[in-house]
Specification:
Blueprint (H helix, E strand, L loop, with lengths): L1 E5 L8 E5 L9 E10 L2 H8 L3 H4 L10 E9 L11 E5 L9 E5 L4 E2 L6 H7 L2 H12 L6 E5 L4 H12 L3 E6 L2 H9 L4 E4 L3 H4 L7 E6 L3 H6 L4 E9 L12 H6 L3 E3 L8 H16 L7 E5 L4 H9 L6 E4 L2
Parallel strand pairs: 8-9, 8-11, 9-10, 11-12, 12-13, 14-15
Antiparallel strand pairs: 1-2, 3-4, 3-6, 3-15, 4-5, 5-7
The structure holds NADP nicotinamide-adenine-dinucleotide phosphate (NAP).
Amino acid sequence: MRVAQVTRFGGPEVIETVELPDPVPGPGEVVVEVAAADTIFVETQVRSGWAAEMWGVTPPYVPGGAVAGVVAATGEGVDPSWTGRTVAAATRQGGGYAERVLVPEGELLPLPSGLAPETAAALLHDGPTALTLFTNAQVRAGHSVLVLPAAGGAGSLLVQLAKAAGAHVTGAARGKRKLDAVRGLGADAVVDYSGPEWADGVGGLAADVVFEGVGGELGASALRLAADGARVASYGAPSGGFAAHDPAEVERRGIRLSGIEQVQFTPERHREMTARALDEAAAGRIRPLIAQRLPLNRAAEAHTSMETRAAVGKTLLVP
Ligand SMILES: NC(=O)c1ccc[n+]([C@@H]2O[C@H](COP(=O)([O-])OP(=O)(O)OC[C@H]3O[C@@H](n4cnc5c(N)ncnc54)[C@H](OP(=O)(O)O)[C@@H]3O)[C@@H](O)[C@H]2O)c1
């Protein structure tokens, strides 16, 4: 089978399409014929060699932690009726950038009726993250909610969830194409955080809830757009590090700050939240923003478009 393999740490060019032997399911495992594999920003950071000890990944390896597709074979002890069913699954061991991947039976989630495999794949990482951040933030009707990056994987779902809860949603992102997309998700207001309006304080915005997933100085600058007593979730670091909020200011202003710890799930909790996200999507209450679908031999391009911030939404690999 063909896979997109990270051959060494480095730029997107280290991803090469290679042939590997077809996987054979061991006890408790199935083989999924991949219809769509998710890609997420952190995979570009792992590929670059950033925090390699923490991730415990050594090249060559096949990235990809989430797929949707059809069960092609079952191993010993697995219910054989899975064969032929369309499923979504976290792979746990990577390997999703491939035509076929091994998945433990316990990770399989049947797709809710009417949900396309691509939609499911696009929700497998971001769905549990967004739903958990959203639930913990206790968003209420009438709240002012700020989301950044609002055209990102988790951010685009947070915009929709907050809007559906009756909040007034401000989506912040970079560039007109992304801001147009954020408006299309239902945001009441949009702001370019690379422009003067952001620097000037977005007309005195004092958000009750801030979902901040960009990190770095930009993420830290979002604190001044939070009302005193606001809930601020600083969950991401695509700019190279988490936002360093001043603890004294956080305390003085009564900001209720939370971080990435709230989206570090046990496998059981992750599965439960994934199933909820798939149900929400099947019911039409959330939809992932899918920018493009690329074949495996263009996986390097998928990474480039995430790193250069070019893609408006998610990139899926469709073998
Ligand atoms: N997705 C999850 O399930 C999950 C779970 C836990 C933690 N996180 C963390 O949350 C963060 C966002 O994750 P995500 O998967 O939802 O990805 P994402 O939102 O698609 O994040 C990437 C976006 O961040 C923005 N960005 C701001 N500064 C950037 C920079 N210097 N370089 C590149 N991009 C920059 C870009 O949007 P603009 O072009 O609009 O600026 C870019 O499109 C990541 O740090 C991730 O590790 C995500």
